[in-house]
């Protein structure tokens, strides 16, 4: 597949998650809720996590922002749901490295649709948009483990 076709496919995946977000909404009161924003561009995200026995049993998000920010939240919640916390954090590390244009050691972790955001690394001003939900998840998991 040529670079232009791949770039078009990736844009379509991002726009699909933006227009048809997965896991949008809130969880029950006993869930962990993390609010974060990107003051540079105004993106605001709220991640809701249900973590039990070291497993992310459910994940949802709410917020306002650009297509990159909201599609990344959609992809992240879809990817971490049902995963051990350690795996969710490893995915976050891989994603952060990908956004920084660094080599990623994916081992046996399949990023799926998340790879569509790889092109964001070429636009430094948009990296914070893409990583906002992931940073919120990391913060929530850290707070939950205390």
Task: Write a compact overview of the structure shown.
46% of the residues lie in helices and 18% in strands.
Q: Going across the biggest sheet, name each strand in turn.
A: 1-2-3
CATH class: Alpha Beta
Number of domains: 1
Structural class: alpha+beta
**Cα gyration radius (Å):** 14 Å
Supply the number of helical segments: 4
As a percent range, the share of helical residues equals 40-55%
CATH architecture: Alpha-Beta Complex
Spatial gap, N to C terminus: 47 Å
| Largest sheet entry | 3 strands, antiparallel
Mean pLDDT: 90
CATH topology, by name, is Sufe protein. Chain: A
What's the oligomerization state?
single chain
- How many strand segments? 3
Low-confidence segments: none
Family: Belongs to the NifU family.
Organism: Aquibacillus halophilus
Protein name: SUF system NifU family Fe-S cluster assembly protein
GO molecular function: iron ion binding; iron-sulfur cluster binding
List keywords for this structure.
alpha+beta, Sufe protein. Chain: A, three-stranded antiparallel beta sheet, 46% helix, globular, iron-sulfur cluster binding, iron ion binding
């Amino acid at each position: 597949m040529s670079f232009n076709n791949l770039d078009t496919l990736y844009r379509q995946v991002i726009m699909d998650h933006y227009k048809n977000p997965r896991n949008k909404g809130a969880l029950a009161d006993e869930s962990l809720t993390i609010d974060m924003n990107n003051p540079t561009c105004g993106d605001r995200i709220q991640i809701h996590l249900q973590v039990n026995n070291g497993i992310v049993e459910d994940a949802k998000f709410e917020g306002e922002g650009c297509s990159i920010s909201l599609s990344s939240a959609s992809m992240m919640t879809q990817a971490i749901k049902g995963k051990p916390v350690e795996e969710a954090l490893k995915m976050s590390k891989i994603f952060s490295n990908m956004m920084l244009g660094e080599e990623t050691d994916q081992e046996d972790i399949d990023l799926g649709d998340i790879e569509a955001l790889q092109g964001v690394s070429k636009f430094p001003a948009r990296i914070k948009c893409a990583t906002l939900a992931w940073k919120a998840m990391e913060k929530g998991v850290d707070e939950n483990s205390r």
